[in-house]
Design goal:
alpha+beta, 10-stranded mixed β-sheet, 8 helices, GNAT_dom, acyltransferase, 221 residues
């Protein structure tokens, strides 16, 4: 999706940046893991196929992807993107009958970052972006039944279980973004700064005080 190709969202723990070709080698290494393949229901790809996938996702109008970085390492230690990557977060707008429905996916690929709030903040930031920039009013998450940690996290974010697919061993959780839920979501992400990626390409330039940054507040970004 081109709408976020120059967007950086900087939070306390995580920074979200657009998925570029520079991120592909590290992403490809992650997806060689049988555990991640199982948890994400993914098939292994060659490196060239991974590059093709990245280009496709950049162009497709129904997929919004951010790479999840460690904010402290990225902004505080002059760390290049690929050395600070911890996962990715995606929104799929694939329901042709309901363009306000987004299927959300979060992957914290680095084991040392799991269970520390990185996935939760990245998910909240993506949900806020989806509501304020993409017109999303309903979210769904489809998660393997064995992935109890992810199911628990989404329930804490007010998602409710709406379906279980015993064939694919998958649970579907859903959140309808009422006015009350939208206020809660924006409160949870009012610390997030939106910046220009092209202005922050140099390592270490992502500090919170950079000129041109703005807080994501209700209706404004």
């Amino acid at each position: 999706m081109k709408i976020n190709q120059n967007t950086v969202l900087q939070g306390k723990r995580v920074t979200l940046v657009p998925y570029t070709s520079a991120h592909v080698p590290r992403y490809h290494e992650w997806m060689r893991s049988e555990e991640l393949q199982r948890l994400t229901a993914s098939e292994p790809l060659t490196l060239e196929q991974e590059y093709e996938m990245q280009r496709s996702w950049r162009e497709d109008a129904d997929k919004c992807t951010f790479i999840v970085l460690d904010t402290e390492r990225w902004s505080g230690q002059a760390c290049a993107d690929e050395d600070c990557m911890v996962g990715d977060v995606n929104l799929f707008l694939t329901d042709l009958e309901d363009p306000t429905l987004g299927e959300i996916e979060i992957m914290i690929a680095e084991p040392s970052y799991r269970g520390r709030g990185f996935g939760k903040e990245a998910t909240l930031m993506m949900m806020s972006y989806g509501v304020t920039n993409l017109g999303i009013t309903k979210f769904e998450a489809k998660i393997g039944q064995e992935n109890e940690a992810s199911i628990c996290m989404f329930r804490k974010l007010h998602f409710k279980e709406v379906a279980v697919n015993s064939v694919f061993q998958e649970v579907t959780l859903r959140l309808d973004v009422s006015d009350q839920e939208k206020r809660w979501l924006l409160e949870q992400t009012n610390h997030v700064k939106e910046k220009s990626y092209t202005e922050l390409k140099h390592p270490g330039a992502g500090a919170a005080g950079c000129p041109g940054s703005s807080a994501l507040t209700s209706g404004l970004c």
